[in-house]
Amino acid sequence: MKAACIQMNISLCSKKENLERALLLAEEAVSKGAELLVYPEVFSTGFCYDRIEEVAETVSGPTLEALCDFSKAHDCILAGSMIEKRGSSEASDESNVPSECIIPPQYNLGFCIESGRLAGIHRKTHLYGPEKEYFAHGDRLAPIRLEKSGLSIGLIVCNELRYPEVARKLALEGADLLVSAAEIPDFYIHPWHTMSLSRAIENQLPHVACNRVGKDRYSTYTGNSFIADGWGQILAEAGKEECVLLGEIDHEKATEIRKAGSILEDRRPDLY
Questions:
Q1: What's the predicted TM-score (pTM) here?
Q2: Per the CATH hierarchy, to which homologous superfamily does domain 2-87+95-260 belong?
Q3: How far apart are the two ends of the chain, measured CA to CA in Å?
Q4: Which of 13, 140, 242, 258 is a good FRET partner for 265, with 20 to 30 A between their CA atoms?
């Protein structure tokens, strides 16, 4: 499978501009044979806190609809993260709840689309810094099963990489590869890179790790997206500029790597 990191610049709160850029870069990726395309975290808006309720969408909104149309037209897989508006069925009556206990009306939504169909979602479980004020915590970790390819994707959203338990749970439940969508600033790029490689090595799984580039009012982002195999060998790596990073994931080799070691089988959960 040829994978692509869409290492794009994100204009804060400019949903239309970001979606157009995302689809343009996706066109470049599929023209070069990409079958799996991965976007950075909150690719369509950035962390648009000032207008978050305005830019948030449900899963049936125009952003995922446009991505589903693209995925169907090109018979490809798309993954990433966006700001989701909590549906009315999920929001309980909070009129008499203390303000500090009210659940924010948005999620940081990880998504995976296969051949025009929303294959699965993952709501970010481990929030960082100001995210805690604006997003509700996700409460489930499970791989997303792709029907056509027969693969299971372990989707990770940015800060979740800090917690080895997240990737390990996805691996134990049958993930065939890890895919992560990130918005990592320049000062944290080395830890992010190291953690992303570690998650691949300790679970013997390929990892498509996609970060953004550009600047906003909060930080500068330096990309350095990469695609690695289950040994932690980097198959393709980007620099600091907007680009489409392509890499070939050999699923037969990935299976061989898992068979060559017995990391998961030799765990001692009785001790920890």
A1: 0.94
A2: Carbon-nitrogen hydrolase (3.60.110.10)
A3: 36
A4: 140
